[in-house]
Protein 1
Amino acid sequence: MLTRRNALKSAVFTSLAAGALVETVAAQTEESMTPVGEPVDLSTLERRKVTLVAPPFVHEHEQATKAKPAVIEFEMTIVEKEMEIDDEGTMLQAMTFDGSVPGPLMVVHEGDYVELTLINPETNSMPHNIDFHAATGGLGGGALTLINPGEMTVLRFKASRPGTFVYHCAPGGPMIPWHVVSGMSGAIMILPRDGLKDHNGKPVSYDTAYYIGENDFYIPKDADGQYMRFEDPGSSYSDTIEVMNRLIPTHVVFNGRVGALTGDNALKSKVGETVLFIHSQANRDSRPHLIGGHGDLVWETGKFNNPPERDLETWFIRGGSAGAALYTFLQPGVYAYVNHNLIEAVNLGATAHVVVDGDWDNDLMAQVTAPKAIDAAHVSTKALP
Amino acid sequence: MISLKTNRFPALVSLPMLGTLAILAGLGSSDARDVSLPETVTIEAGSFQYRSSGEYLEGGHAVDAPMAEVTFDRPFEIMKYQVTVGDYERCVAQAVCEPRLNQGLDAANLPVTGVSHADATTYAKWFERQTGRSWRLPTDEEWAYAAGGRFVDDAVNADRDPENPAARWLAMYQKFADLETGADPVLKPAGAYGTNERGVFDMSGNVWEWTDSCYRRSRIEPDGSETLIANNCGVRIAAGQHRSYVTFFIQDAKGGGCMVGAAPDYLGFRLVAGTPVGPIRRLLNNLGWHQRS
């Protein structure tokens, strides 16, 4: 008899071109799926373990490093869980890398080897994998990492191109977009070994890095217009696909939910501090804008071998990419970091706040006249234009 | 401290006329009253210390609104509960009220939500026709007085720093962030938030209540007196856990983006009772005259 979980698995498997391959692996669990090639000896390389932290924060890392390329070990557990995505009790049957939406930002240096242990616990209901846009070959690792509940796998890839890159789950067919819009995406930042450089090739650094992962959600509504709640991911599938295929998200959010980065959870900075904002969107275009600020140096496409653009008002993040913007705060106050499709920012949720302490600079801005009644000199005697 | 003595009780009809009107009002009133009178609470005459509403500037900088002594010379009656979905739907069914914003919250005993100031005013006019009494939205002062201990002071208490206009802004942001902590989005049936010391239910729950008070900006002069700079009645005060200034046609004020600060969870209302309606007004009412504002 087919349980729901088994039914889901078979649905996934039949949708996979590599279905047969998966069965082989199940039979010979100790074997690697990597096709035969020249062996690589990494035994002389140093190995370092990194503990990931949940976004918007970024694990401790060097910006420029004198160390030799190393094998950097990460571990992520895939967690299927129900998450609230706004302040109104709207629930998503989320699928997550390491329990957060988006998944954590991984930071390494160019030339390092990323070695990820990926775990799909028995408590999950579906097969998952990971596709790194930063990786070369094997569907970004997706072909080598498909694991069922109760399985784990280790993938190694070389961080050969510096930049910010998306990673996401891609378990085949219609499962791919569904897993992505259920929360399964994150980003990796591969820094040049000598750090970031400005448009003139001069080194630049940041005091803080924040990772803003943007997600578009598609929550079905019932006949009364109420958002539906589901028992498990499987039972949400068909209704969700219907909403997804209309391409109009019900929620567009930063860090997994409306208001995740506002109020008590607002990002913090100080006048004079330089912040690197890393922005990813695995599925849909976005256009970050810092209200009251700018992008001093912006790697819009996120790839550090290209010189950054300067003084941007808004930058474009293509769906399926991650970009980076460096900004030094010059004025105290509350800044709104938004997707400047303002409908998405204000009505659908894509707003974060940055609370910035420090001294006010009257040279940059001053209120010359506080609001007052229109004075005689400005009362128009002509018809309004 | 500024003393601002006000009498907010509205002048509806002159006293000598009342006796005559009461008799006339009794005639033919049963036709009009297809809705029973709601439970009200009488708020006794008296004075209280009140944090004025609106925005205040002093020396060109935003400051907390001053405290004022507000006096009610006469008692007034306010609805014991907020107007409910069931109440409002009767008005919609008669094609007088606009449909409320569909928030999927349809149980008749829930407070009505998804209504604008304009909707609330239309309802008041309709309710007057139904009950033969005049009804209106409370002023912010009346609401605050009726709320008693449930009224939340919205002073920011930021150290005044004329050198740094962002200081007050940041303090206000923190205050709103604190207020939002513990917000409960689940609507509760009328009465669930309990009563205050005056016997009025559900004040400062998660449904903000429209008042008739407009958004004002005032200047505090060096001698301590106030000058009104602007009185914008396109924006009204929604009273609740904090005052919100909301454009009159908005039915749902939740939002983010540029509007930094806490928004009301839901917009609803309750009404204040006036005197019985006079014969001319009753005639107009019965002829179907009602104002949609």
Protein 2
Amino acid sequence: MRLAACDTAALGLGLTPGTALADARARVPDLAVFDHDPKADIELLGWLADGCERYTPACVLDPPQGLLLDITGCTHLFGEDEVELVKDLKARLRRNGFTCRLALGAAPDSARAKAKYAKAFISDLPVEALDGNYKVHQALRRAGLKSIGDLAVRPRTPLAARFGKTAVVKLARLLEEEDPRITPRRSLPAIHITQNFAEPISRTNDVLATIEALARVAAMQLRERGQGGRRFEVSLFRSDGHVARLCVDTGGPTRDASLLMRLIRERIDALADPLDPGFGYDLIRLAVPLAETLKNVQVGLEEKVDTYAEAAALIDRLSVRLGPDRVRHFHAGNSHIPERAAYEYAAQAGASPGEWPKSESGGPALRPFRLFETPQRVEVIASVPDGPPRQFRWRRQLHYVVSHEGPERISAEWWRRKAGYDPSQSGPTRDYYRVEDSEGRRFWLFRLGLYEELESPCWYLHGLFA
Amino acid sequence: MNDEVILSDISSPLLARGNWREYQPDKQDLLPIGAPAVDERLQGGIVRNGLHEFFGAERGDAIAAAAFALLLALRLPELESRIFWISGDKERQTSGRLYPPGLAEMGADPAKMLLLQAADLRDALRAAADTIRSKAAGAVILEVQGNAKLIDLTSTRRLALAAAETGVLALLVRGDAVPMPSAASTRWQVCSAPSSPLPGNTPGLATFDIDLLRHRGGIAPFAARVTWDHATRTFHDAPLSGGLPTAATRGETNPDTRIQA
């Protein structure tokens, strides 16, 4: 077993990562040792990255111990230049008990190398910053090239010939000649608006008022772009580094700030564990990660209630409160098997497509009003084995069949089965009967399997008629 | 053509309609059921912008109560009106899910229906109140299985007031429950009734025995038997005694005569 990481005190005693545990114990008998948990390390890094999103939405993990922030165009929120931002970040990390090394660079690779090797200038970086293999570094050192500054003044072609193209690309990135954009861990929102506070706020009303102000700015920006948001995300940054996020989806693009506020209030009400402001929020951000084209609509001269818009707003509100899966539309399924003939999907996903077959005039309904998700087993007595039911027992109650219609024979979807072309493998046929009992209740029963298909077919109750 | 003429052209349809801004529907807008005998007893029908309760007579009649409520909602004249069906996990478990092909055969348009499945009754009641208040729906049906303490005078009054305000038809279906004091305009007990069999002794059109238990307007309780005709989306009176169907003897060539049977 070896040491994976050491704290500053251990480093002061001369222990380094990689030392064998037995050696370390021999040197420092009262050494406190903990199991290495890489997953928890990554989680902690992710938590830090969440907190760092207060500075920029473009933030990426650099495992095992690094974070890369792209602060291009984000510094004005914290002062005149990036120095204020660095100071703020350093103070926050220190307050949470982290030691850190911060470095700024015009490209991610140079900033990362500066922080890693604790150098202020690129030319001072050791050749190890190239991230090549050990042989490359050794060869460069033997040639007397010890720093990136030494490499920078040399022609690149021999370098490429000797160490491959990757070394040259890496050098160009370290020298900030090339700027590969980082891929943020969360995709960049179309619009994001941030509000900073000098003193943390903790009252819910203040938070909501701030979100509303941000929503109005977002609405203005969306209007300028001719867009509406489909998803809105509020990030509440607590002063101790914790981040709470509220996400709201809408059924159609919208830029109505008051509607958005209603949805956010619903979202806060529906939270399983309520918002804990702790010592207060010192930064609130509203982001629109998903935006779609939204044209201006001419409002009617008469005050007619637009039921379509009302319904869309209601669906959004209920979806936020109950969960999108609990507000549903019917969708027709392309199948003759009864349970596959209709599905339910979240209403927010869009209007239900397709036409439903209109009822034929005259005759009674041939399909039930309600259908059981799983057909319910019933005991049936039939006059002849293949005949209609005479009486049946369902939920411990006996029903005498007075009249019936059927059978309506529905065969299985043999093409879904592996060897369905073989009649014995195509699945049991169902014989459906519409029956009415002596009390006037109407049921939909079926016998699973014909007598020539199965030894002893079973009866099921599948639906109830009005 | 000068500007004045154009202006008058634009405003004329509005002027012709008079006080279009002040127009409000009659407070006591009645929804006729369609069956002449029942409508006569009800003095025109049930209050459209009110709350109505439907109880199943027995345990197995929750389905009849739910179906009758839906069919009443289908009586609404606006073809465009949406129906919001609010139920809980428990109701789906005991009586199955709504089946769109069957709904279409009953005369409903499943594309115009919306399902809300709340986790518990508190959520369901709140969703119902919001839905009634929003004017998005023509009718709102709240289905509750079993006796529930939450459905009391206060909560039903909340629904009734919301319905009176927006003109939405609010229907409360109570399967397997004992009637308790509520703010509903009418309270009905519904159970399935034997249908008039069709030729070949096959089950006929949906038939219900309905009992008016209570009417806020003071109409005396009465019982009736009605059948639903999905083609015209209306109820018909059915003979209380299940006599021999006339259609069987008259022949089934004309569907209208079959319905009248």
